[in-house]
């Protein structure tokens, strides 16, 4: 279980949110600039809230009052950025091994081989990201995040770089891969309602740095659809 109750203030924006997320995929859905990425960055420890508390499976990651701020690499969170963020100068295998730096060579060899198999990319280990399709890059990026065995996956618009033709197939593969290989909390940031509908169990709706609604997907989307701009069905108006 992930519990988040934080505040962060900038001159022109304030994030002030509280939510809980259990196992399964929880979507954070909201318009551009509503604080979705900032939330993930605070949970991952890349950014720091001004106030509040973040707890993962009973372990405090951040607590302003208790002066606790666990370093990113010790948070057991796996963060996957928009546009994959694979290292272009590293091969598939080197990208996978990146998060295992400092571990025994044998463990690195075994884990990278096991993950290459899981993502069905044996034989591609020496290719560079530029030599892969969008879906393949997405699988490598996900595997690189999962190889460190996180308790919580933080996915920031993981499908935004894919073209519409391959997107649906990649999302279906992604769902079945997660179902087979990951059983923790997944937070998935999106501003696309159709994506939230396909992928998420629960949805947290953001507006202007605040949580507008948190419920099972069907409840949230029912109300969001009612507010939707009929001329632009892909956009959400909340
Ligand atoms: N370092 C910073 N200094 C000032 N303002 C910031 C800083 N970081 C984020 N913000 C502001 O916080 C707000 C939320 O940004 P965030 O990136 O979380 O939005 P988002 O919901 O992820 O948007 P998008 O869907 O466009 O990625 C924005 O208005 C942004 O300008």
Automatic annotation (TrEMBL):
<protein>
    <submittedName>
        <fullName>ABC transporter-like protein</fullName>
    </submittedName>
</protein>
<keyword id="KW-0067">ATP-binding</keyword>
<dbReference type="InterPro" id="IPR027417">
    <property type="entry name" value="P-loop_NTPase"/>
</dbReference>
<dbReference type="InterPro" id="IPR003439">
    <property type="entry name" value="ABC_transporter-like_ATP-bd"/>
</dbReference>
<dbReference type="InterPro" id="IPR050334">
    <property type="entry name" value="Molybdenum_import_ModC"/>
</dbReference>
<dbReference type="Pfam" id="PF00005">
    <property type="entry name" value="ABC_tran"/>
</dbReference>
<dbReference type="GO" id="GO:0005524">
    <property type="term" value="F:ATP binding"/>
</dbReference>
<dbReference type="InterPro" id="IPR017871">
    <property type="entry name" value="ABC_transporter-like_CS"/>
</dbReference>
<feature type="domain" description="ABC transporter">
    <location>
        <begin position="1"/>
        <end position="233"/>
    </location>
</feature>
<dbReference type="InterPro" id="IPR003593">
    <property type="entry name" value="AAA+_ATPase"/>
</dbReference>
<dbReference type="GO" id="GO:0016887">
    <property type="term" value="F:ATP hydrolysis activity"/>
</dbReference>
<keyword id="KW-0547">Nucleotide-binding</keyword>
């Amino acid at each position: 279980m992930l519990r988040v109750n934080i505040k962060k203030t900038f001159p022109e924006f304030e994030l002030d949110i509280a939510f809980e997320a259990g196992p399964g995929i929880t979507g954070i859905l909201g318009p551009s600039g509503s604080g979705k990425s900032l939330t993930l960055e605070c949970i991952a420890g890349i950014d720091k809230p001004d106030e509040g508390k973040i707890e993962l499976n009973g372990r405090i990651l951040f607590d302003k009052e208790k002066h606790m701020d666990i370093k990113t690499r010790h948070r057991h969170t796996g963060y996957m950025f928009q546009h994959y963020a694979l290292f272009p100068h590293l091969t598939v295998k080197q990208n996978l091994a990146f998060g295992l730096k400092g571990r025994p060579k044998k463990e690195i060899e075994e884990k990278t081989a096991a993950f290459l198999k899981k993502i069905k990319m044996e034989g591609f280990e020496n290719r560079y990201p530029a030599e892969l399709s969008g879906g393949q890059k997405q699988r490598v990026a996900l595997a690189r995040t999962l190889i460190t065995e996180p308790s919580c996956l933080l996915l920031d618009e993981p499908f935004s770089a894919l073209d519409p033709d391959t997107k649906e197939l990649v999302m279906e593969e992604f769902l079945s891969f997660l179902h087979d290989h990951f059983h923790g909390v997944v937070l998935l940031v999106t501003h696309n309602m159709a994506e939230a509908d396909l992928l998420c169990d629960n949805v947290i709706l953001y507006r202007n740095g605040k949580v507008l609604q948190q419920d099972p997907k069907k409840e949230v989307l029912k109300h969001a659809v009612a507010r939707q701009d009929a001329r632009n069905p892909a956009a959400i108006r909340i």
